Amino acid sequence: MKKLTFAITLIAALLLSACGSSSEPAATSASSGNAEKVVIGTGSQFINICFFDENGELTGYDIELLKEIDKRLEEYEFEFQTMEFSNLLLSLETKKIDLLAHNMAKNEEREEKFLFNKQPYNAMPLHVVVHEGNEEIQSIDDINGKTVGVSPTSNASIFVEQYVKEHDFDTEISYITQTTDMNNQLKTGRIDAIFSFPFAVDINNNASDAEQKIVGDPLLFTDIFFMFNKEDAKLADAVDRALKELIEDGTVKELSTKWLGSDYSVEL
């Protein structure tokens, strides 16, 4: 079994975060024999999905799942590169990374350019989220005339853009790259709503007193996949093979419960 090791320091992470750099430190694994290196692009600010813990270690559901996949694929050696979410798709398109892991859902534009593996590894409901004192917004239909925050190029942003256009809403969409900034803007009233997942709302409230609450029914409940370059079908198939083993032996259930607070593998 390969041992995945990281070369990340908390000081470097904090410095890069403070200066707003779009490039963050890589978390790399040691070379193992003739194994083929796979560069994985991921984020560092998606709480409990891919983030730096208090020791400066890259961890979270996506990261720990990929470590388990790596253990089962002796022909590959995984190396992590962290970057801002807005740079991930471009990095995959320009082949600076081989695999993208950031709780990614399918959409038509992405499927035209990239390859998704066949076996989903997650499925979570997306909700409208507001400040706990907000009584005006009870569902997505109440965002007309309001300002909402989304991550650029995210599936949530695509959904909201289409919904606002189709319903002819007078909604201002603010594109925010930093999760902490988005939470602060919601708490201080600079934006009226964001779009997030139940586990993230719970974590934000417990960790930083974000004062958030979910309103309305789920907007999306879609399968989540890893993304690859079109020509990397062999790698995608290998990841699928390992994922199926991890679902069957209960590892996915264990990781989902630990990091996301519930067993989302039942939806797979």
From TrEMBL:
<feature type="signal peptide">
    <location>
        <begin position="1"/>
        <end position="26"/>
    </location>
</feature>
<feature type="domain" description="Solute-binding protein family 3/N-terminal">
    <location>
        <begin position="37"/>
        <end position="263"/>
    </location>
</feature>
<dbReference type="Pfam" id="PF00497">
    <property type="entry name" value="SBP_bac_3"/>
</dbReference>
<protein>
    <submittedName>
        <fullName>L-cystine-binding protein TcyJ</fullName>
    </submittedName>
</protein>
<keyword id="KW-0732">Signal</keyword>
<dbReference type="InterPro" id="IPR001638">
    <property type="entry name" value="Solute-binding_3/MltF_N"/>
</dbReference>
